[in-house]
Write a structure and sequence with these properties.
- There is one protein chain.
- The protein has 187 residues and is an alpha+beta fold.
- The chain folds into two domains: 9-54, no CATH class; 59-186, Nucleoside Triphosphate Pyrophosphohydrolase (Alpha-Beta Complex).
- It contains three helices and ten strands, in the order H-E-E-E-E-E-E-E-H-E-E-E-H.
- It has helices spanning 9-16, 99-111, 172-186; strands at 32-37, 40-45, 53-54, 59-68, 71-77, 86-87, 90-92, 113-126, 134-146, 154-161.
- Strand 1 (32-37) and strand 2 (40-45) form a beta hairpin.
- The chain binds zinc ion (ZN).
- Residues 25, 27-28, 30, 45, 47, 50, 52 line the site of zinc ion (ZN).
Length: 187
């Protein structure tokens, strides 16, 4: 899985699974210690005058399933992790965004097209991204404008027949989403 990555995926997983490698309190700079709080491992600041606790949460991401004549729009990744692998257009939410706005923005940034959200498709948890765990919120959407092109974060873009997908899909959540979407179309 790491063949296309320019950095070592195993090391990133180790770091991710160890509180993303965080060692020092972002508020006061003291050492952080692991502690069990409410049945979860947390990082607690060792400075008794500081109340910082690091809660490690998944990062929300959003994207859209867009089709043309029963083909699905996929993006070939230009950035790590999994450069050269394909995925549904999606990306991490900005601080003040609604996930539907994230989906519209990310599709525009990656594929050049403008979309209109139709409905929520499904929500997935992602645990195989070496940077962080995530929550992927996927919508169904229609193209309403723009020109299809491999934009910012993409090496390539294209519509794929659901029976003839590219072999390398980047993440388990995307693989599941495409399978479940295909099942819906077939039923
Ligand atoms: Zn602190």
């Amino acid at each position: 899985m790491t063949g296309h990555d320019k950095f070592n995926s195993d090391e990133l997983y180790l770091r991710k699974n160890n509180f993303c490698g965080f060692k020092y309190c972002p508020l006061c700079g003291a050492i952080l210690n692991q502690q069990e709080i409410d049945n979860h491992r947390r990082l607690i600041c060792t400075n008794e005058n500081c109340d910082f606790i690091y809660y490690q949460n998944p990062i929300p991401a959003a994207g859209a399933i867009i089709t043309k004549e029963n083909k699905i729009l996929l993006v070939k990744r230009a950035h790590p992790p999994r450069i050269g692998y394909w995925c549904v257009p999606a990306g991490f939410m900005e601080w003040d965004e609604h996930p539907s706005d994230t989906a519209v923005r990310e599709v525009k940034e990656e594929t050049g097209i403008d979309i209109k959200i139709k409905s929520l498709f499904q929500i997935y948890t992602g645990k195989d991204d070496p940077r962080s765990n995530s929550v992927l919120i996927l919508y169904l959407a229609d193209k309403i404008g723009g020109e299809l092109c491999a934009a910012d974060d993409a090496l390539d873009v294209g519509y794929f027949d659901l029976g003839n997908l590219p072999g390398e899909i980047a993440f388990e959540a995307h693989i599941r989403a495409i399978e479940e979407f295909k099942k819906q179309l077939d039923s």
